[in-house]
Amino acid sequence: MLADRGLARVGRSGMGSVAVVTIAVALFLCAGVALAQQDGDIETAETMTEEVLQPLMPPTAVTAVDTPNDRGSSINVTWEHSPDSESGTLLGYSIYRSAHPETGFAFAGRVPFVQDNYRDSGIGDNEPTYYRVATVGLDGRESLSETFGPVEAFPQWFNGDRINVMVAVIIFVIAIVYFVNAARSGKDLFIRRLAGLDEMDNAVGRATEMGKPILYITGLSTISDVATIAGINILGEVAKKTAEYNTKLIVPCADPIVMAVEQEVVKEAYAKAGRPDAYSEDDVFYLTRSQFAYVAGVNGIMVRQRPATILYMGMFYAESLVLAETGASIGAIQIAGTDAVTQLPFFITSCDYTLIGEELYAASAYLSREPILLGGLKGQDTVKFIAGVLLIVAVVVATLAATGVIETNFMAPLFVTG
Questions:
Q1: 117, 91 in Cβ contact below 8 A?
Q2: Is 6 a residue whose pLDDT tops 50?
Q3: Pairing relationship of beta strands 148-151 and 117-121 according to DSSP bridges
Q4: For the chain, what percentages of helix, strand and coil (3-state, to nearest 5) are there?
Q5: Which of 13, 116, 238, 396 has the most CB atoms around it within 10 Å of its CB?
Q6: DSSP states along 29-95
Q7: In 10 A of CB 109, how many CB atoms?
Q8: In degrees, to the nearest 5, what angle opens at C-alpha 100 toward C-alphas 96 and 103?
Q9: Distance, CA of 351 to CA of 324 (rounded, Å)
Q10: What pairs with residue 336 in β-bridges?
Q11: For position 45, what pLDDT does the model report?
């Protein structure tokens, strides 16, 4: 029995050795296969590297010229694509500039490989510049072209891309000069009737008959606002009528500079009407710059003085409805005019008459019939009419071109602004 057990142990020991040897052989074979695969991968990588690292071809026919129709601060660089542009190995093109090629080139910019031009801005006037363009590979390698230069940037006296603007300015000037001369010669120029301005005489007359003052408000904006200037122009015409009718005119101001201008305008209007003695500086006064403090002060004047006519001409903000509602509550005739689009609904609702947008600017010419103002107004309207006609023609031509009725849009150059 002992012998049998010994033989069994020897048998099991022999089988274990065989297993170990088998595993070792298998590991050796696997290592060999892995090494063989690794050698194959290295050979493949070396082959691919050799293919990718083939020399890049630089762009050809590099040229540089001064950019036309500019101020002399840029140069246009163009070139022909590198033969490698269709191989998929290019990242783009780098542009280099130099004032002295012997000292080297500085980087100016980079464009995609599909682009064959570059505008180099920031060039000084009459400064000789040299250029080289390089193809840039996916791996960052570059291949430089031959040097081109020197080329200089210089300003042009005339911008050919803005001929349409010059034509428009010439037409505008001719129209204004023509209508100004026509007005001075006594020709009756038609201006569309404005109901609010036609009612101005009646409003001043009503205040005179009732023995009550007229309140004139030019808004809260400064003298730099066009609407404020238009309101001051109308104030001059209203002041002439109040001087003729001997009616008190109250003008509360929210800006000290506007107050000084309005004092001079009213004073001059009274002098032109032959009533300089009727003018009082206390009637044109500074109230406050704060928005709703000004509103409170003006509302107090409305309630105490109870003016028969209130005129709002200028730039207004959130205070417009508060002022107009207070004026309506005392039964005054109210005429408003502003180009503030957000405030127009409140004036239209609360006032008897409202001048909308450009009607405010036309009011001074409408009231005074001054030849220069009339000529300017008619000239602007004429140019607007011409622009509207050209716009309609352009839309029709573009529509016909899009539908294939005509082949080209021959009106396009007139609307290119550069």
A1: no
A2: no
A3: unpaired
A4: 50, 20, 30
A5: 238
A6: HHHHHHHHHHHHHHHHHHHHHHHHTSPPPPPEEEEEEEPTTS-S-EEEEEEEPPGGGGTT-EEEEEE
A7: 14
A8: 85
A9: 7
A10: 312, 354
A11: 41
CA proximity to 75, closest of 92, 93, 99, 59: 99
Phi, psi of 408, rounded to the nearest 5 degrees: -130, 155
Burial class (CB in 10 A: 0-12, 13-18, 19+), 297: middle
What DSSP state is assigned to residue 124? P
135: its two tokens: 């193809």
Half-sphere exposure of 393 (CA within 13 A, CB side): 12
Q: What is the pLDDT of residues 78-114, one digit of tens each?
A: 999 988 888 778 889 999 999 888 888 999 999 998 8
Q: How far apart are CA 187 and CA 179, in angstroms?
A: 9
- The pLDDT score that the predictor gives to residue 224 is 92
Q: Which domains does the chain have, with CATH numbers?
A: 60-151 (2.60.40.10), 200-351 (3.40.50)
Q: Band of the pLDDT at 198, cuts 50, 70, 90? A: confident
Residue with tokens 């209203």, as numbered in its chain: 238
pLDDT surpassing 80 at residue 351: yes
Q: Is the dihedral of CA 66, 71, 73, 79 positive or negative?
A: negative
Q: Tell me the average pLDDT across 381-386.
A: 89
Give the tokens for residue 54: 């083939």
Residues counted in the chain: 418
Spatial CA neighbour of 326 closest among 337, 345, 344, 312: 312
The answer to whether the beta carbons of residues 319 and 338 sit under 8 Å apart is: no
Structure tokens at 41: 């991968």
| Burial class of 34 by CB neighbour count within 10 A (0 to 12, 13 to 18, 19+) | exposed
pLDDT at 361: 86
Cα–Cα distances (Å) from 156 to 119, 125, 160, 209, in that order, read 17, 11, 9, 67
Could you tell me which residues come within 8 angstroms of residue 164 by beta carbon, excluding any fewer than 6 positions away? 413, 414, 415, 416, 417
Is 263 in contact with 253 (CB distance < 8 Å)?
Answer: no
Residues in Cβ contact with 383 at an 8 Å cutoff, skipping those fewer than 6 apart? 168, 171, 172, 175
Residues 271-295 have pLDDT tens digits of 999 999 999 989 999 999 999 999 9
Q: What are phi and psi of 404, to 5 degrees?
A: 85, 5
Helix (H) or strand (E) holding 192: none
Q: Hey, which bits of 26-81 come out as E strands?
A: 60-66, 74-80
Mean pLDDT across 305-323: 94
- Other Cβ atoms within 10 Å of 343 Cβ, number: 21
